[in-house]
From TrEMBL:
InterPro entries: HTH_LacI (IPR000843), LacI/GalR-like_sensor (IPR046335), Lambda_DNA-bd_dom_sf (IPR010982), Peripla_BP_I (IPR028082). It comes from the Bacteria. Coiled coil: none annotated. Residues 14-68 form the HTH lacI-type domain. CDD domains: HTH_LacI, PBP1_GntR. Keywords: DNA-binding, Transcription, Transcription regulation. Pfam families: LacI, Peripla_BP_3. SMART domains: HTH_LACI (SM00354). GO terms for molecular function: DNA-binding transcription factor activity; transcription cis-regulatory region binding. It comes from Natronospirillum operosum. This is LacI family DNA-binding transcriptional regulator.
Amino acid sequence: MPSRQRQRRSTQRATMSDVARLAEVSASTVSLYLRKPDEVSASLGERIQHAIDTLGYVPNLMAGALAAAKTRVIGVVVPSMVNSIFATTVSAMQATLRAQGYQLLLGHSDYSEDEEEALVRTFLSWSPSAMVVTGLKHNRKTRQMLSQSDVPVVEMWELGSNPLDMLVGFSHYDVGKAQARHLMDRGCRRIAFIGARLQVDSRASQRAEGYQTVLADFLAGTQPIIIDVGPKASAEVSSQAFGQLLDEHPDIDGVIFSNDLLALGATFEAQRRGIAIPQDVAVIGFGDMDFSSSSLPRISTVRPPREQIGRAVAEVLLARINGQDAEQARQSDFGFDLVQRESSAVVPEGQTREEHHTSALP
C-alpha cells in the first residue's frame, strides 16, 4: 500500500476549481488564462495568478483522457550541470532508474531559488512519477508545490530537519568541522575559509559554519576569516583571493576551500610566491575531483558519496512508486571520507620539500 504520508499529501493538491473559487471566476476562465493568458483581461489575470500562487496550484498538462496517468519520467533539479559532483550523482541515479523503465527530466537552477521554482512548476505540469531536488533550502512556493504534489519527493545532498518527504545525503556542517580539525591536528592555528557562492550555496555555507564552530571550541578568541569569491568558482579567482589572504594575514597557516578547484588555484598562487604547501600553509578542499590526486602538490580533500547518493535516491523512489512503505528510509545519512594527500600532510622536521612530495601519502 502507498504510505500514509503519500496519501495525505495527495489529498491536498489544489484543483482548477479551487483556483476559480478563490479568484471568483469560472473554471473555463482559469483554463483560458493558463492556455492563452493574453485573451484574459489584465485585472482577471492578476486575480487568477494570485489564486494560483496562494494555493500552489500546478496545472496538469495531461488533463482529459490522461488525467489519472503518470509519465515514467522523474524530474530532477540540481544546482549546476557543469559540476562533476552532481553529474556523477545524476548518472548513478539514471542508471538505476533506467533499468526499471524510467527516464530523467533534468534541469539546473544555477543556485537560484526562483529558477528552481520555475523548474519544479514545469516538471510537475508533466505529471512525473517522482521529483528530486537538491538540498533543503527552497522558497515558499516551491515547498508548497512539492508538499501538495501527489508524487514522492527526495531532497538530496544534504541532511537536516523538516524534510518535505525523503532525504538522502550527508552533513555539510560535519564536513566543515572535520576539515578544520584535520588542519588543527597538523599544527595549524590560523585557519581561513575560502568559498564560492556562500550567500546562495547553503551546503558550502554550512561547511563554513562547521569551520567556525571548531575555531570557537578549540581556538577561543581566534576570529574566523571567511572569503567569498562570488559566483565564479574558478582557479583564477581563487588564486587572487588566496594572494589577498596572504597579503592581509601573513600568519595564515591553513586554508579550507569550498571545492577542489579553488584549492587548486591557491596552489598555483603559492608556487608563484614561493610559498611551500604544506610546510608554510596547509590546504584542504572538497569534492575529490579528478585532478586532485594528480596535481602538485596533490590536494587533500573530502570525498562525498556521489554515486551512493544517486543509487539510494533511485532505490527509495522506486520503493515508494511501487507502493512500499519507505518510512524507515525517510532520512539516509551516507557520511563522507576525508582524504589526506600532500597539501595537508605532516612534514617531518628537517625534511626538504622535494623529499616530502616523494614520501607523502597519496
